[in-house]
């Protein structure tokens, strides 16, 4: 078993961020820590590479490989460090079948599917190029930090391969100290959006393709020895614990100081691996973070002449019997599910702060919510930081959705690495309280073993938060009566049970039957309804007997909420979903046209009747 775990861990570290052969080797660590995190990069000297990039489609992947498995032809290699027009002007036999400098432009970050009509359903490789000027620090180091590239990235700087990454929703950092030029630089990124049976997720989902460089890219400067990451958390025993990780030749034996908003100061010394453990009593005046009072402290970490800053909230989260306790007090999660998709008729999954704020404001103030399920993959850092600032508890998940290749250790390796990248990214966010290990995956022995390994991985990497999964429910007869039950051995690994239920939308149940449906769930565990929902086209109205009307959706909500009220262990709700979202699965020509219509709001922000039903329910709940 230990051997298998070690093999998996090695696979996991190898699966996701791979520096090019020429770059320094990455230590494969059992804690699945990516080689570099640079989590506090916004507080560092850095250059935002957002803006206009040129691009070139490459459906047959000619820039990566030639026919017959040969090396790509040089006339196809989009990442070459040359000016095609200048070469052409020389005449002669050489010619090119691309020109990144004279190619069409696209605004980055943003998915290509929204940028150009001809790329609407393009699923494959696209090359992007951005030129920029750099002024490297003498004796310092430089890194590229990508917040997300969907789904695979091949990164080249000035014609040299810097590294690769797999996974569409997590950040990765590649060192470019050697390849970066003082002056003009040419950054080329091949982005492959295609998914297969061994990717996470597979090609079959219920959301849009959104290929591209979907989140910001930064060039980050750091001293030769620097603070890569610092994490702090409040424990139930009243102590603040955490770690500071230094990188570089002088990382060992360094004095580290952590200042928590001027309230408390911790000092420690790094060990041989550049790591310092922090453990101090929480200061008496420390205000606990909560949705009602989302207090964040300015935290400043200093070591080896380097300083990073972060804004961190302190709270505890625990389960006791069937209660969820925030700062020791029972809490009911008044939430909603959300896809990473901004309001508007043609979203590009470009989650600017303004776009994220518009969505979260509807949850916090429109619905009177205190919780959001960020489905079905890690959302942008912007969204999670905003949840911290605005006071919304967060459920976070990676896209182990429906079915993945359960029997394949390499796929499990990818899942564990994605989880690790998410946890290392977000472990300072007080808002995040739940890590989910899957969504609606059909029960089988290999699937349960896969999720079990994921749950163990989360427990090891972050024992301070709760573990859940959005499970399927079964309907069966008990004494002639229809009973909804969870029949899933995975429950043994979870702190909070969560189920998706669509009675009244999928299936034959009349709405009036919903409040009478019987539930059989463990009495000693908290339960969340992680999804329920019904489609409605905003503005389509009649007597409410027809599906897709606003009235039907509103009545579905009334009846489902009445059903939920009867489940004694119910501790939270995240109905499906705040806003209509794009999905090629949904092709009804009158009601859907490529949109899943289960939003409480249309894609442009028009509220449907059911929005008011849930808002009223949450307003009452908040007062209880
Ligand atoms: C689900 C899935 C979600 C779908 C939703 C639906 O159970 O978890 O991704 O979009 O149902 O609309 O059917």
TrEMBL record:
GO molecular function annotations of the record: beta-glucuronidase activity; carbohydrate binding
Name the UniProt record assigns to this protein: Beta-glucuronidase
Pfam families referenced in this protein's UniProt entry, alphabetically: Glyco_hydro_2, Glyco_hydro_2_C, Glyco_hydro_2_N
Enzyme Commission code(s) on record: 3.2.1.31
SUPFAM superfamilies, sorted: (Trans)glycosidases, beta-Galactosidase/glucuronidase domain, Galactose-binding domain-like
Keywords recorded for this protein, A-Z: Glycosidase, Hydrolase, Signal
Enzymatic class: hydrolase
